[in-house]
Amino acid sequence: MKKVESSTVRANLITRSLIPENKETPIQFLKDDNVSDKLFYRRNHFSYPNFLTSFYYLPIEGFVYSSKTFSLEEILTFPPKTLKVVLECAGDKRDLFKPKVFGEQWEKGAISHGSWKGVPLRTLLQFTGLHADAKEIVVEGYDVGERTDSNEIVHFSRSLPLEKALDSNTIIAYEYNGYPIPFKHGYPLRLIVPGWYAMASVKWIKRIKVIDKKFKGPFQSVDYVYYPHEDNNNESFPVTTINVNSTIQKPLDMQILNTGIHEIKGIAWTGVGKITKVDISLDNGATWNACQFTSSTENYAWTHWSYIWEIKEQGEHTILIKATDSEGNVQPEKPMWNRKGYGYNAIERIKVKIE
């Protein structure tokens, strides 16, 4: 039998659904900051769109002083900006909610990270101007399909308040990790909204429209809303900023280890500010020790951390991890349960067995 060389072994995305394609990243295999497009998680509401990129133009219209249509070539001439950004699905870790909630049962891999290059949205809006009555910026994608709750045919569309849309770090991206954005991740243009859950980063941008009222599209007013109560919509509010969070990449949950020295490692991220501390507990939260950062800490980017654990006691052990950001946000002991299962960020917890 022919020996399989280790170099031929490749990690694959974990399939959650095929139509539309939803696959998560095998988070334990990620070592670098720039996740390859082959391991970048995929989140879709509809099938992939069909459109002619050779005749691609981006119109900006609505409550502006002068509507304008940009060619892709023109957009490429503007001064660019490159940002390292975490993109996390709002449903990341949905599988961990108790009681369970309906929806794609994402585990810990609906998250990826890389470098996005593009032009600030506000640069394009300078050419059109904003009417005094302008309230929100709606970005519509080419992806379109039928909603199961209404049987309505809709494009995936989201809006941003003016403050976020005009932030210099909100960009219309055309490159990922130094190459044109892969088609499955939004080619040729994708909105990147750093610090917000990834539903805001609309793929395959079709048009941008400035409106004078609150956007009521279903992916804004029905989905991507926190519903704290199971049987009513009271106290609901929109999903926006990424919660402070962390994940253990090594060891795996329920893994069997030998006594000795082990490296515990993982990533931490947040939507506001940057990660300032990651703590670990090996005694069910009675005491906590600081982990070491093994990468830089930056706004919008994830941070790698590690901890060296010397263990001589056999048996079952629980490992807890919690992250803190520069705004003082700390992972809570329990998540904020909500009916659609968004924003899970409870203290990371795994079990291992020492033999």
Automatic annotation (TrEMBL):
Its cofactor is Mo-molybdopterin. Gene3D superfamilies: 2.60.40.650, Oxidoreductase, molybdopterin-binding domain. Residues 240-354 form the Moybdenum cofactor oxidoreductase dimerisation domain. Residues 45-218 form the Oxidoreductase molybdopterin-binding domain. It comes from the Bacteria. GO terms for biological process: sulfur compound metabolic process. GO terms for molecular function: heme binding; molybdenum ion binding; molybdopterin cofactor binding; sulfite oxidase activity. Keywords: Metal-binding, Molybdenum, Oxidoreductase. CDD domains: SO_family_Moco_dimer. Pfam families: Mo-co_dimer, Oxidored_molyb. PANTHER family: SULFITE OXIDASE, MITOCHONDRIAL, SULFITE REDUCTASE. This is DMSO/TMAO reductase YedYZ molybdopterin-dependent catalytic subunit. The lineage of its organism: Bacteria, Bacillati, Bacillota, Bacilli, Bacillales.
